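Worked example 4.2. Below are the chains of a multi-component assembly; read each line carefully before continuing.
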Amino acid sequence: MAERITDEIIDYVSILAKLKLSAEDREQAKQDMESMLQYIDMLNELDTDGVEPMSHIFPLENVLREDVVENGDEREQLLKNAPSIKNGMFKVPRTVE
Amino acid sequence: MEILAYTAVELSEKIKKGEIKVRDGVDAVWDSINKREKDLHCYITLEKEKSYIQAEEVQQKIDKGELSGPLAGVPFAIKDNLCTEGTLTSCASGILRNFVPTYSAEAVRKLEAAGAVIIGKTNMDEFAMGSTTETSWFGVTRNPWNQEHVPGGSSGGSAAAVAAQECFAALGSDTGGSIRQPASFCGVVGMKPTYGTVSRYGLVAYASSLDQIGPLTKDVTDCAAILEAIAGFDKKDSTSALRKDTDFTAALQRGIQGLRIGIPSDYLGDGLDAEVREAVLKGAKLLEQEGALVEEFDLKLVNYGIPAYYTIAAAEASSNLERFDGVKYGYRTKEYEGLHDMYKKTRSEGFGPEVKRRIMLGSFVLSSGYYDAYYLKALKVKTLIKKAYEEAFSHYDVILGPAAPTTAPRLGESLSDPIKMYLGDIYTISANLAGLPGISIPCGTDSKGLPIGMQLIGDCYREKTLLQTAYTYEKAKGGCKVEKKSLSTIDFESAEADMRCKNDKTI
Amino acid sequence: MTKQYDTVIGLEVHIELATRTKIFCGCSTQFGGEANTHTCPVCTGMPGSLPVLNRQVVDYAVGVGLAANCNITRYCKFDRKNYFYPDNPQNYQISQLYLPICQNGYIEIDTASGSKKIGIHEIHMEEDAGKLTHDEWEDCSLADYNRSGVPLIEIVTEPDMRNAQEVTAFLDKLRLIVKYLGASDCKLQEGSMRADVNLSIRESGSDTLGTRTEMKNLNSFKAITRAIESEYKRQMELLEEGKQVIQETRRWDDNKEYSYAMRSKEDAQDYRYFPDPDLVPIRLSDEWIEEIRSSLPELRDEKRKRFKSKYNLPDYDIDILTGSRTLADLFEEATAICGQPKKVSNWLMVETLRLLKEREMEPEAIRFSPDNLAKLIQLTEKKTINSSVAREVFEILFYENIDPEEYVETHGLNTVSNEDELQEILRQIIEDNPVSVADYRNGKKKALGFLVGQSMKKTQSKADPSLVSRILVELL
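Applying the procedure described above to all three chains together yields the following C-alpha cells:
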C-alpha cells in the first residue's frame, strides 16, 4: 500500500507548523504520523452520517462584554519577557512585504 | 513531624484555632522538601522566600479575622502550566524556560484569596502532553511509592508532591486524564470538574475544549474544599459556566443508599491488569455494601475515545502553541537567517519530541484536504460519545472503573511506543470529550506496593454526587491500613504511613 | 486584431469599527498613543489569555448588514485563521469563515447608465493585526500591538463591478452608509478603511470568469483607479501573448505606479480554519435584531426624501447636506431654532465646507453647535452685525464654538448704525480724502466705493455699508 505520509507532506506540514526537521527526524516523523493516522483510521468504523460535529460541548451562547475600557498602559509588563526590544517594540528579523 | 500528617482542612483548622501558626505548616513542608525533593524532583521552581512572606501575610489576615475559610494557611503546590505572577511558569518546556508571567491564573488567584501559601511550581509533561511526566525539559519526577516508577502525567509533579508530603495539596490540569491518572499512580485523590467549572484564564492552553483545572489532595474533604474555592464564573473566560451549585463541601456526607452505579463491561476486558481489576471491583463491592446498586453495562464506543481525543487535542494544540515563536516571550534561538528561520529554529529547539509530534499531527488533520476526513470526523465521533454518556446517565448516577489499566510503569519504558502509551488513557479520556466530571480515589495497592485508583465519572454538573460517593467510600474503607513494607523505600515516619486512615474518626 | 476584454472586479473591504475597546479585550482602540501602550495579555497572545467578545462589534456588524440589505446569520461562530507573522501575536487571527454574520446583500450605486446593485457576498467580524515598522538603521522590523485586536468587519462583494468608476462609487456609498451608522470613520488614508481589489478579465460577451488576482496597498481612490487600469493592461498583455494569468496577490506601489507579486515560498496559504474553542457561538434572536434595526439612524436616501418634502431647498443643497449625517443633523437642529433653512444651508455649504477643506477635516470633526450657528444667523437677520463681521465671527465660531451674541458684545462688533455717530466719522473721511471727493463730484462714481471702503476701514467694518453709502451721498 502506498505510504500516505510522503516526504512532501512532512515538508508541507513542517512549513505550516514552523518546525525544522533533520533528515532522521523527518523519517521518524513520517513513521510516527503514519502509525498515528492508522490508529485514528479506527474512527471510520463508525457511521457518522447526519451527525453534527460537536465543536462546543455545552450549549453556551452569546457570552459578551460591554464596550468599556478596562485596561490601561501595561507596556512595562508586556515587555518584561521579551527576547529583544527596541523603542518599546518587539524586535524581529526584517519582514518582507 | 505530625503536622505533615494533617490534611489541608485539618491543618487550617489547627491554624485558625491558634494551635499552630501558618509558618509551622510551611516549615514542615520545607523540611520534607529538603529530605525528599532531591530524589523525587516534584518541583521545577521552589519559592521558599516568597512562601514565608506569604505565610506572614496570611497569618496576619487570619489573626484579624479576615481569612476564615477552610484553606486559610495551607501550603500548596501549583502545576507549572498555571501562570503565577512573578514566578517562573515554564509548562516544563524549553521554549518557556525563562517566562515569568505578570499575571496569575484565576484559579491561583482564588486560591491565594482563600489563604493558600504557594510553595512552588510542580513538574509535568511538557505542555501537559504526556502520561508519565517524562517529557519535561527539566527532567523526570519519581513516584514517591517507588522511585523506579513514574508518577503518572501530565500532573505527575503535583501528584507526587502531595503523596510525598512536599505540600498539603496541589492544583493540576486535566485534558485527557492528567489529574486522575497521576492521582491513581501516586495514591492520592484527584478530581477534574465539569468543563467550564473552573476558569481557564491563566492556564496555558493545550486543548481548549478539553482542559480543566482541578485539585490533587490527601482526601476527599480537601478535594471538595479546594474545588469550592476555585470554581465559579469568570468573565475573562468565555467558556466559563455560570454555576450556582459550587458549594461542594455540602456533599461531604456519608450515604449512597440507592445510588445507581454502572461499570462498563468494556472497561474490564483484556488490557486491564488483574490486580487493578480486583482492587477496583473490591471498591465497587464496598460501595454496594454502603447501599449502592452496582451492575455492569455496555457503555459503547469506549475504544473510539482515544483516536477522537488525539485528533481533536492535537489539532487545538497545534494552534494554541503557535504563539510560542520567540517574538514576544520565552526562548529565542541564537542564530538565524531571517524571520522564518528564526521561527523554525526557535520552535524546533524549544519544543520536545512529543510536543512536536502532536503539533505535526494537529497541523495535518486541520490542513485542507484532510480537515473533513480527520478533524470533522473526530468532532462527529465526539457527538456520538457524548450521546452514549447521556444514554448511560439516564440509567446510572455514577460510572465506575479504573483510572488506568495498570499501576505506575517503570521509568523509561513508556515513551518508545507512543500509541501504547496513549492507550493508557482509555478510562479517563472520554470524560474530557464529553465535558464530564471525574474523580480518582485510592482503592488499594498491587503486589509491588504501587497504588491503584478507582475512578468515578458523573453526569455534567454532578460533582456533588461524585464527592458524596467518594466520601462515603473513604469513610467505609477507613479501617484499611497501608502495608508498611510497601513504603519501605521511602523515609516515612510510621505515623504518616497511616495518614489516610486518620481521616476516620472512629479509629 | 486585439480582442475586446471586459473587466470583472470584486472587492474585499476591511473597515475598522469605531468601538471604544478592542474586539476581544478591554484595551482602548484610541488612535495614536505610544507603541504597545494599549495592550494586555489577551491582545498580545500571552500564555493562558482568553478572548471575550465585545457586544458593540456585533451590533455594528449587524447594523451595517441591515443597511446593506443582507440576511443576518442567526447562528454564527468564530474561526481561527492560522498563519505565522510577527504582527499577529497568537499567530492565528480570529475571524469568521464558515458562518459569517451577514450574507447575500447589495448596495446600490449610481452609474452613468443608471442605478446598479452591487452584490455583497458576506460580511464577517474579525480582529486586526498589530503594526510592523521597518527599522531604518538596523536590518530588523519592530512590532507594535496597539492595533492588534481592533475590531474589523470585512465586506466581500460579488464580482459585480466593471470599471474603476463603479468601484469608487461603491466605496463612496459604503463609506457613507458606515459613517451614517457611526460605525467607523472610514478613512482610506489612515487605514480605517482598506480595500483589496480582485480583478480578472474576460473576452467581451463571455460568461466564464477569468483567473483573478488580488491587489493590496491601495490607499486612495486615485491609487485604486490607477491600479485597476494597470492590472487590466497587464492581464490583457499576458492573454494577448498567449500566456496565462496566475492567481496571486500583488502589491501596488502608487509612487512607481506598478504592482508586483507578493509570493513567498514560506507562505503556505493553508490557514487550517477551525472553530475557535475559546469563543462560544452567537445566536441572534429576532428581538436582538429588531433592537439593532430600530436603533439605526435614518439612512441617507430616506433623509434625502424627507428633506425634499420638508424643506424648500434645491436638490443640490439637499445632496450636500445629507452627504454627512453630522452635517444633516446640524442643519436640522439649527433650522429648528432659527427657522431659516436656506441661510443655514448656505452657511454650511459655503463657509463650513470651505474651512473643512482648508483644514483637511471631515464634517464629523465640526465643533460648533447648532445653537450658536442659529444665533449667528439671528444676529445677521436683526442686522446687529453686517455680513463681513458675520463671516469673521463665523470663523471664530468654527474653531472655538463661541456664543456669537456674547462675542459681539464683548468685542463691540455691533454694526455702527447710529446715524449721528456715522455722520461724525464720515465728515472726517470726506475731509481726509479731498481727491476722491473731488473725483466723485466730477462724476466718477467709483470714487464713492473708495470712500465707502475707507469708512469701513475706519469703523473696523462695523458700519452698515449701505447706510454709509447713503449718508455719504447725502453729505456730498
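Take a moment to check your reading of the output against the notes. Chain B is about 40% helix and 10% strand. Chain B touches chain A through 70 residues (CB under 8 Å).
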